[in-house]
Design a protein that fits this description.
The complex is a heterodimer of chains A (345) and B (328). By secondary structure, chain A is an alpha+beta fold. In chain A, 25% of the residues lie in helices and 26% in strands. The longest helix of chain A has 19 residues, at 321-339. By secondary structure, chain B is of the alpha+beta class. In chain B, helix 5 (161-179) runs parallel beside helix 9 and helix 7 (249-262) crosses helix 9 (309-325). Classes of the chains: A alpha+beta (345), B alpha+beta (328). Chain A: The active site is at 202 (proton acceptor).
Chain lengths: 345, 328
């Protein structure tokens, strides 16, 4: 299953090679052209010479991760790894989680002082990232240095699994779920030029998408995302952002974009016409690649279609497979209606 | 001028909802412009072809506001800010939405003072969800503040004066320069308040030889005023620097010489935390010659501001004469 393969692939920000290779393999022979640009974005093209609006679909390949910054040399901590985050990670989700370092997947565990030894005041607040370390079971610094170097990146060692009623758990659904949607979309035929941009370095500031949009210069762009969902304990309706199982979410405003209202309504009405559940993403925080894309060149019309992801940016994230399926249906319906001229530029 | 300011400030245009004021502004230049259009990001653009270098005059037409993100069973709304409004300045005030719905911004019971928008709710007088949904929807935007009033000493107070004053100046400057046969474009920019997001797209499309941005700058002649030397009523200010730009010295010289020739006292804006369209335009394509001429206000970037009409008149004269004096 593609979502499982993508979810388990190693791809922290700046280290997207493995994810890119999976996608390239999936699209080989199914698109006219694929190229990897200088930043590492993979751009797949179909029907570049066709008439009609140039449509760009976007999904970022990178995931939040950790980067090793120091291998402790002497004393009791010899061979332990100090690290920093790549992208926004709440340090409270890190303690005692298994990780893989590098594409060779050196296994490690994030360690911290056990509760028995913590002073009362230490127990009152979360352990900051500076006090955490990755333990790879090395016997000393030389042993650790033989397999890990500063600058190596790590991801959570979470396996994909389906559970409960049409739910899946795994790491990096943000944004491998978008990658899976985009791979599927690129396999279909549309009567206008279609560009699929699998981008890098979204998690540290939408960095890859800018270059991708610059070279594509699209007329319409749609970012495919996994987005924040907190429909659980104690969250009032205005604090949820999205609700799991209620369908793909459309943005009204986030930290980088005020939605193009006309395009957002076009997508909303398309969902209604095709009987696809849809909801608004109702929070200002967070953003996606469309925030970078819409400001390129003379400006780009478009928006985003997001799959709600519970526990986003954490080691184990949860999606509804119905939401994933409905996001795919909505994307296909939107692409079809663009072909039929339902949205005029 | 005052009539135009009052009329433009009467339009409700929170960032991202500039369509209506864009039409008003383009209608006001239609008779002189060779081309007008609205671009993908909501900028309103008019060009008059003519002699000499192509000069772009820009002024943002949007204002900070709020956007509905939730409607509850009892008919109350929840909002997030659009642009730089804080929860504390929004609380206990009336909000007017772009569709005409009016409500009161209230603070949740038990909260001492508003610090975050999720402590606020809006009462539009609806008795239940269904009624509220007939008057509001998720994504609907609105603004805070009262209409423009003249408060004496030729000073105006009211909502959206930052930057409808700039729009009125840019509008009049474009009309004047177009009638003189110069090659000039005016851009009423969208989405400035959330961080100058749209101006660069217009500059990218127009590729002007020079861009001059008209915007408000905070005067410091107030209690606790920050360390700038700007005074309300003391004339236009040349933007030496803000958070997104340092002015090209050639343009500074041009504006200084022009002010001197006109007998206008020039102030200097140094606003390390301000983010105007100037920087966004300057860094477009291979770089565009861009600078800002600002009018001082009391409270910039907030829902309401105070301006001095004498500053407005002088800013307009300085802008028109500077463009006329510009040689490539």
């Amino acid at each position: 299953m593609l979502l499982k393969t993508l979810s388990e692939a190693f791809g922290p920000t700046g280290f997207e090679d493995e994810v890119r290779n999976v996608i390239r393999g999936e699209l080989e022979g199914r698109v006219d052209e694929m190229k990897t640009d200088v930043l590492g974005n993979l751009i797949a093209v179909k029907g570049a010479a066709k008439p009609g609006p140039k449509v760009m679909l976007d999904a970022h390949m990178d995931e939040v991760g950790l980067m090793v910054v120091q291998i402790c040399d002497g004393g009791a901590d010899a061979g332990l790894l100090k690290f920093r985050s790549l992208g926004g990670i709440d340090p409270r989700v890190l303690v005692s989680k298994p990780v893989f370092i590098g594409p060779d997947r050196i296994p490690g565990v994030i360690g911290a002082k056990p509760v028995h030894l913590q002073a009362p005041e230490e127990r009152q607040k979360p352990i900051p990232m500076e006090k955490l370390y990755i333990d790879i079971g090395a016997k000393d610094a030389a042993d650790a240095k033989s397999v890990v170097k500063p600058g190596d990146a790590a991801v959570f060692a979470t396996r994909y699994a389906e559970f409960g009623e049409r739910a899946a758990k795994g790491k990096s659904f943000d944004d491998r779920v978008g990658c899976a949607l985009l791979v599927e979309a690129m396999r279909h035929e549309v009567p206008y030029p279609l560009y699929g941009a699998f981008t890098v370095q979204e998690e540290i500031g939408l960095r890859g998408a800018r270059a991708a949009a610059y070279q594509i210069q699209p007329d319409i762009a749609i970012a495919l995302e996994g987005t924040v969902c907190f429909d659980v304990v104690g969250a009032p309706s205005h604090g949820q952002s999205t609700v799991l199982g209620k369908g793909p979410a459309l943005t009204v405003q986030d930290a980088q974009t005020i939605a193009d209202r006309r395009f957002a309504e076009f997508m909303w009405e398309t969902a209604q016409r095709h009987g696809i559940p849809v909801q608004w993403r109702r929070v200002k925080g967070g953003s996606n690649d469309f925030g970078a894309i819409h400001r390129i060149g003379k400006g780009v019309v478009g928006g985003s279609i997001s799959v709600p992801v519970r526990y986003i940016h954490a080691p184990t994230q949860v999606v509804s497979l119905d939401d994933v399926e409905n996001a795919q249906r909505l994307l296909q319906a939107v692409l079809k209606e663009i072909a039929e001229g339902s949205f005029t530029l | 001028m005052k009539e135009w300011i009052v009329r433009l400030a009467g339009e409700i245009a929170p960032s991202g909802s500039e369509g209506r004021i864009a039409s008003v502004l383009l209608d006001a230049v239609q008779d002189l412009a060779d081309e007008t259009h609205m671009d993908a990001l909501g900028n309103a653009i008019a060009t008059k072809h003519g002699d000499g270098p192509h000069v772009m005059i820009a002024a943002h037409m949007d204002e900070p506001g709020v956007m509905v993100i939730d409607i509850d069973d009892n008919g109350y709304l929840r909002v997030i800010p659009t642009g730089g409004l804080t929860a504390s300045e929004t609380a206990f005030r009336q909000v007017t939405f772009t569709n005409g719905t009016i409500g009161l911004v209230c603070l949740e019971d038990g909260e001492k003072r508003p610090e975050q928008f999720d402590q606020l709710y809006i009462d539009i007088g609806a008795k239940h969800r269904q009624e509220a949904e007939s008057r509001a929807f998720i994504g609907l935007s609105g603004v805070i503040g009262g209409s423009v009033t003249e408060v004496g000493n030729g000073r105006l107070l009211g909502r959206a004066l930052d930057n409808r004053v700039g729009c009125a100046i840019a509008l009049q400057a474009f009309r004047d320069l177009a009638q003189r046969g110069l090659h000039v474009s005016v851009v009423f920019t969208a989405q400035n308040a959330p961080g100058a997001r749209a101006a660069q797209a217009a500059a990218f499309a127009l590729e002007p030889d020079l861009a001059i941005v008209v915007d408000a700058t905070p005067a410091s002649d107030v209690p606790g005023g920050k360390r700038t030397a700007l005074q309300l009523g003391a004339g236009p200010a040349f933007k030496v620097m803000d958070a997104g730009t340092v002015a090209p010295l050639a343009v500074k010289q041009l504006v200084e010489d022009t002010a001197h020739a006109l007998g206008i006292t020039l102030q200097y804006e140094v606003w390390p935390s301000g983010r105007s369209d100037t920087g966004a335009i300057q860094l477009t394509r291979a770089g565009i010659l861009a600078a800002g001429i600002s009018y001082p206000v009391h409270t910039a970037g907030a829902a309401e501001a105070m301006v001095d009409l004498a500053d407005v008149e002088a800013t307009l004269r300085l802008l028109v004469a500077s463009v006329q004096a510009y040689r490539k």
